[in-house]
Design a protein that fits this description.
Number of strands: 0
Order of helices and strands: HHHHHHHHHHHHH
Structural class: mainly alpha
Largest sheet: none
Helix content: over 70%
Number of domains: 2
Shape: flat
Number of helices: 13
Radius of gyration: 21 Å
Distance between the termini: 16 Å
């Protein structure tokens, strides 16, 4: 969230930087010069509380499967009573929604509380009903991750800040911000969708105890691996588009204000992210044990991390 906020603020939505394209430094981030104010941290706290509530309710409904897949990590029913888990879920959700409502009221931006309300319900229905359904559960949990950059974008509406003489520059700059945020959201969604399917392969024994209808159970491990490899191809193409098209747009936009920038670190992030996806797929092909599947999943998580930090260097 902070990375997306820094990117948006440094590209025209900060009162401190009107019409000037600043490259964020660590000092800038630490000293909160990119609209990382108390209000934004309340927004982040709201997201953390809602995510925590989602984890609690997910563990609540996963007790039976977790006894098989990861008994050493079982918490609910072992360290925390089930009724307390439900209470924590309600407290976290209520607190997160209340904070989102406050931010919406202060900013007169009701998208914030609306999106928070939708996410809370999605997380509940995902854990209670759709997690063990074919594809649906994977899509829902991936959406919850992919929507976070868009959530930050809605928080910053309207996108203001350009003080450039040409009217077209303002329009182009706003489009550029939206384009980058959407690409990051799609990358986050796609990578997490693949990760969820890989985790379904790793958790297949426990899911069978729940009569789940996950992709590896319905189609088998071999076909699921082929599907994941096929899904990785358009993902890599999207990253290529991101590296070429968006950076060219940035160069054209910065040429208007006559300031040059280096894209070396940006290209490094995208290249490392793409390489990790490729390594993850090769790891998946040869995987036959749970820990190897989880390694493939963790490589995708690392790939998403590098993809998410790439806007810092635009």
């Amino acid at each position: 969230m902070c990375i997306i906020q820094v990117f948006i603020a440094s590209h025209g939505n900060s009162s401190l930087y009107l019409g000037i394209f600043q490259e964020p430094s660590l000092f800038d981030i630490i000293t909160l010069k990119y609209n990382l104010n108390l209000e934004f941290f309340l927004l982040a706290l709201s997201v953390v509380l809602i995510a925590a509530a989602g984890n609690v309710i997910n563990d609540y409904f996963d007790v039976k499967a977790d006894r098989v897949n990861k008994p050493e990590k079982l918490i609910i029913g072992k360290h925390i009573k089930r009724r307390w888990a439900i209470m924590f879920n309600w407290i976290f959700n209520a607190s997160g929604l209340a904070i989102a409502a406050y931010i919406s009221y202060v900013n007169r931006n009701w998208w914030i509380v609306l999106i928070a309300f939708v996410i809370i319900n999605f997380l509940w229905f995902y854990s209670a009903f759709y997690k063990r359904k074919l594809i649906v559960g994977n899509i829902l949990v991936a959406l919850m991750i992919g929507i976070v950059p868009i959530y930050v974008l809605f928080y910053n509406l309207p996108l203001d800040g350009y003080s450039i003489a040409e009217n077209s520059s303002y329009i182009f700059g706003t489009t550029y911000i939206v384009e980058v945020v959407l690409i990051i959201s799609i990358l986050a969604f796609s990578i997490n969708f693949m990760r969820e399917i890989i985790k379904d392969i790793a958790d297949i024994r426990g899911d069978l105890h729940l009569s789940a209808k996950t992709v590896p159970i319905v189609l088998g491990k071999k076909k699921t691996k082929i599907i994941l490899i096929i899904l990785s191809l358009p993902l890599l193409l999207l990253m290529l588009f991101y590296a070429v098209d968006v950076s060219l747009s940035k160069q054209l936009l910065t040429s208007i204000v006559g300031q040059k920038q280096s894209f070396f670190l940006f290209y490094c992030c995208i290249s490392i992210s793409a390489l990790l996806i490729i390594i993850s797929m090769f790891t998946l092909i040869s995987a036959d044990k749970r820990k190897v599947y989880l390694l493939s999943s963790n490589l995708l998580k690392l790939a998403m991390l590098f993809g998410m930090i790439s806007p810092l260097f635009l």
